[in-house]
Design brief:
One of its GO terms (cellular component) is proton-transporting ATP synthase complex. Keywords: ATP synthesis, Cell membrane, CF(1), Hydrogen ion transport, Ion transport, Membrane, Transport. This is ATP synthase subunit delta. 67% of the residues lie in helices and 9% in strands. It is α+β, with helices and mostly antiparallel strands. It has three domains: 1-115; 117-199; 203-271, no CATH class. Helix 6 crosses helix 11 (184-198).
């Protein structure tokens, strides 16, 4: 976000935090659902996005316009949080959508934290991503922008009913809708990282040829924590095709010490 957008977002977060200081996990989850329902409305209504970011209108007018549109349909907490965003300044209408969506995600995470389930939700999101990656048909279905979002959400709800926590299911639905305009799998990875960040942790995606034992995981996590100056959450994927060694990705940093990489480099060298 641009500086002014960050300021607008920070003001909305401050308002929401003050209004939910004594809220229960269930109350926060309800508010999150309501904010995310506004994001869905904005996604399908470009004219509304433009009206709520119209620089020719005052922030107070834009906030009041939003309140009038949702009066009696949403709880006061969600209404005032989004109204605070509408009163802010955004350089493009799409940025308001991104801000509302992110506010909804942050509220899901706040509810998850209140329920003391952040670590479990983080792990469930990652494991669902692995399930999808291992099932090409499911991956295509969930990533298909031409397919109805409602149909894809129903499919996921049926697949995961009773198997994951409430926060996990809601965040997976956000990924289906496309967080910040991203594709499904990229959105899911971003949500894993946001969940980890809520725990003040960095995510390290680790690929190995065979599963690490507990001691090996602890040593790797400790080494990465030293490098990045914060706790690291390892997300381990087993891929026998790399033959041996380990690949680690943290943000844009990639450390590839796999035997497969060395073999490919050797082939390239011989080919010259």
């Amino acid at each position: 976000m641009a500086t002014v957008n960050r300021e607008s977002y920070a003001a909305a977060v401050e308002k929401l935090t003050a209004d939910t200081r004594t809220a229960t996990a269930a109350q926060l989850a309800t508010t999150a659902d309501e904010i995310l329902s506004v994001a869905r409305l904005l996604r399908g209504q470009p004219r509304l996005r433009r009206a709520l970011t119209d620089p020719s209108r005052s922030g107070a007018d834009r906030a009041e316009l939003f309140r009038s549109l949702v009066a009696g349909k949403l709880g006061a907490t969600a209404v005032e949080a989004v109204a605070s965003l509408a009163a802010g300044r955004f350089s493009r209408p799409a940025e308001l959508l991104d801000a509302v969506e992110r506010l909804g995600v942050d509220t899901v995470l706040a509810a998850t934290e209140k329920a003391d389930e952040l670590a479990e939700v983080e792990d469930e999101l990652f494991r669902f991503g692995q399930v999808v990656s291992g099932d090409p048909e499911l991956a295509v279905t969930l990533s298909d922008p031409g397919a109805s979002i409602d149909r894809r959400v129903k499919l996921v709800r049926d697949l995961l009913k009773g198997k994951v926590r409430l926060g996990t299911g809601r965040l997976i639905e956000v990924a289906i809708e496309g967080l910040g305009g991203r594709g499904f799998e990229t959105s899911l990875s971003r949500l894993v990282e946001l969940t980890a960040a809520k725990r003040d942790r960095e995510v390290a995606y680790v690929t190995v040829a065979k599963l690490l034992d507990d001691a090996e995981e602890q040593r790797l996590a400790a080494k990465l924590s030293d490098i990045y100056g914060r706790q690291v959450s390892l997300k381990v994927d087993v891929d026998p095709s790399i033959i041996g060694g380990v690949s680690v990705r943290v943000g844009s940093d990639l450390y590839d010490g796999t035997i497969l990489r060395r073999l490919n480099e050797a082939r390239q060298a011989f080919a010259k």
